[in-house]
From TrEMBL, chain A:
A Pfam family reported for this protein in Swiss-Prot or TrEMBL: DUF1416
Protein name: DUF1416 domain-containing protein
Source organism of this protein record: Geodermatophilus amargosae
Origin superkingdom: Bacteria
UniProt-listed InterPro entries: DUF1416 (IPR010814)
SUPFAM superfamilies linked: Cna protein B-type domain
UniProtKB/TrEMBL annotation, chain B:
Entries under PANTHER family matching the protein: THIOSULFATE SULFURTRANSFERASE
Protein's recorded name: Sulfurtransferase
InterPro entries named in the record: Rhodanese-like_dom (IPR001763), Rhodanese-like_dom_sf (IPR036873), Thiosulfate_sulfurtransferase (IPR051126), Thiosulphate_STrfase_CS (IPR001307)
Pfam families, per database record: Rhodanese
Catalytic activity: thiosulfate + hydrogen cyanide = thiocyanate + sulfite + 2 H(+)
Species in which this protein is naturally found: Geodermatophilus amargosae
Length: 97, 275
């Protein structure tokens, strides 16, 4: 379904031999940011998905191998991070400024 | 129908909270968002629990819709103001659904939850109780809903708009990337469909672009005003967003939402697919 599932939590049940998982946390001022909006943009900067971070500031996407951009927006600021993902787990942090 | 009849700003919404004759309705798939804080006085609709048949893949029928709205305290002459998460995807779906069952006065809050939260506007955790009504729905208006056979028959003749992301359109991924990529259906798109992602119609804060920007967007992508239009996505909610843009904001004639969308089309035996 298209509604964003709960963010964060265990990777149990996710097959990392087939899925390309991009996950991480949004930070600002030395602390994780809950309720931040995080977008996954494709290589042409087009929207692919968006989630809202968990109380621990976590987000998770299921993508495909390649280059992706994470863009986060929250009342305290915005931030971006480009990642190169392979099949399996790619972890990153987006810092809001 | 114009933008002012169907779309309200967050400011307007905040000023009209609690006003008699106006019912705010939050629509999400994950209603924990509502439970964590909602517009003061807003009732909630769960996209799945409330709006989908529990057994078959279809809407709830007319009598179930009547029972649902009656229980939420929504009357036929109320102005229903919808908003939600996911850039208003499910709120736009509910808008289309309310129109399908003939509700007269429906509006969307521009930007939905996202803009509301980014603006730091107040949210309430108070339980909302409204006295029950006796809601009467109309028969479904099928002039705004497309089914699979019509989609196949429209290949090469109507505007078919695939509003998914480019990577879903190309078959690189099978679902929006916040979901696991394990699906039964084939990857790709309906032949002759144009890929005009829903997101191109929205600003980053979830609000809709201006009418001028929207007209230019569809014109650039080869949208033909002389043809009827079918929009689809994966399960019909993002295409409701585009249906809202084309029919309600821009006033295009004969626009249908194919809510079966790729989950259905990509599983059909024998239909043509392009990749």
């Amino acid at each position: 379904m298209c509604g964003a599932p709960k963010q964060g939590g265990t990777l149990a049940g996710i097959d990392l031999s087939t899925q390309t998982v991009i996950q991480g946390q949004v930070w600002h001022d030395g602390a994780p940011v809950a309720g931040a909006y995080v977008r996954l943009l494709d290589a042409t900067d087009e929207f692919t998905a968006e989630v809202v971070t968990s109380p621990e500031g976590e987000f998770r996407f299921f993508a495909a191998p390649g280059q992706w951009k994470l863009r986060s927006l929250a009342p305290v600021g915005r931030g971006e991070r480009v990642v190169e993902a392979e099949v399996g787990l790619t972890e990153t942090t987006v810092v809001l400024e | 129908m114009s933008r002012n009849d169907v779309l309200v700003t967050a400011d307007w919404a905040q000023e009209h909270l609690g006003q008699p004759g106006i019912v705010f309705v939050e629509v999400d798939e994950d209603t924990s968002a509502y439970d964590g804080g909602h517009l003061e006085g807003a009732v909630k609709l769960d996209w799945k629990q409330d709006l989908q048949d529990p057994l078959r893949r279809d809407f709830v029928d007319k009598s179930a819709f009547e029972a649902l709205l009656s229980s939420r305290g929504i009357a036929n002459d109320d102005t229903v103001v919808l908003y939600g998460g996911n850039n208003n995807w499910f709120a736009a779906y509910a808008y289309w659904y309310f129109k399908l069952y003939g509700h007269q006065d429906v509006k969307l809050v521009d930007g939905g939850r996202k803009k509301w939260e980014l603006d730091g506007r107040p949210l309430s955790k108070d339980a909302v109780e409204r006295p029950a009504t006796q809601y009467t729905a109309q028969d479904p208006d099928l002039s705004i809903r497309a089914f699979r056979d019509e989609v196949v028959a429209s290949i090469g003749s109507k505007n078919i708009i695939d509003v998914r992301s480019p990577d879903e359109f190309s078959g690189k991924i099978l679902a929006p990337a916040h979901l696991p990529q394990e699906q039964a259906q084939k990857g790709g798109h309906v032949p002759t469909a144009k890929n005009i992602p829903w997101s191109k119609a929205a600003n980053e804060d979830g609000t809709f672009k201006s009418d001028e920007q929207l007209e230019a967007l569809y014109a650039e992508q080869g949208f033909d005003d002389s043809k009827a239009t079918i929009a689809y996505c994966r399960i019909g909610e993002r295409s409701s967003h585009t249906w809202f843009v084309l029919r309600e904001l821009l006033g295009k004639e004969d626009v249908k939402n194919y809510d079966g969308s790729w989950v259905e089309y990509g599983s059909l035996v024998g239909v043509p697919i392009e990749k």
